[in-house]
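Could someone model S-adenosylmethionine with this protein?
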Amino acid sequence: MLMRYWGRKPSKLINEVMSGISGTVIDPFGGAGSIALVSLNLGNKAIYLDINPYAWLVAFVNIVSIDAKEFKEKSDEVLENLSFVRKRKLRNDYLYYANGKPFWKKRNAERISDFFSKNNFTKLYSILKTIDKIEASPEVKIALYAAFCDSLFKSSKMKRKGAGSWGVPSYWIPREHNEINAIEAFRTSITRFYSYFKTNKGYKLGEDVKLLFRNALTFQYDKDVILFTDPPFFDEVQYTELSFFYWAWLRESEFTDVVERFTGQRLYFNSRDEIIVNPNRGKGYETYLKKLEKFFSKTRRVRSKYLLFHYDNESLKQKVIILAKEKWKDISVNEFELGNQRNIGPKGSKKYILIYSSRE
Ligand SMILES: C[S@@+](CC[C@H](N)C(=O)[O-])C[C@H]1O[C@@H](n2cnc3c(N)ncnc32)[C@H](O)[C@@H]1O
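Reply:
Sure, complex below.
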């Protein structure tokens, strides 16, 4: 995978479970696209859904075929034509919801702009605006926006010495930060992207894989697809809230226009439909379980269903099993503990269940 996202990616487990599957695999909580990618690599077709526009971008570069040579040429063009933009702050980038409550994972910063030195802010804004002006195929243009996002964490005050990625899923500026020059960060991202596109031929959008910006709870599922998914678990990783770090930048660019012209889909920031526990957004435990219940109900006619569930709490696990049994009827449940996965957040549980149901 080229770009990471929060949450866990038990690719080995997904690979093992999926090895006997053939057909079209749908993952309605697609995230970085790891499930879609594994299923494509095993020769299946894939349908990906997510309501987070940043997740869509991450999945796009992880999965879709992108011309490496063109990407290299256009990224060099960006670096050679950087035009200075006088701008100090991003608009409406405060870490508060519309109801006035702070982001659930807000620690010691007020707005996204606070994460960047004046110098890096200007450089980043210039890169973004230069990408807007570059003429390239839509795939390459989208990949350039993704490379820009890839360089944001490294050039922000969240970056600590020795740590390359956003390990602690919160908005937090450590006392000792060690951000790097934004142009160098972008250059590093470009090099990494180029070598990924060169070695991974990728898949054709529309033919091999569909990347849909859609709500898993309102989608009409075909009964003949194979459902394989890893839904959001509880409150630990606030996907859309954390993605706002990228979205606050992307929405100042032409990114959404490029995507709309290319795919016909208009991406927007949609935290309302997110299934998550977040008391500051009025999303409690009960709402979370109700939405999961709706999901089980929506998908009950799909013949073959696999649901991975990450948990750190026995009672939550039991509740999910009860919901699955109620809606999917015949289920089997396997328990896993993953050895070499990265911990997420302070709880850092490595426990999963795999719920399987088949109506053959
Ligand atoms: C646990 S993550 C999936 C991680 C993914 N398996 C991976 O490897 O990256 C859950 C995803 O569900 C998405 N999500 C939450 N509510 C959703 C909804 N109602 N419809 C579609 N996607 C949703 C979140 O944006 C998040 O990307």
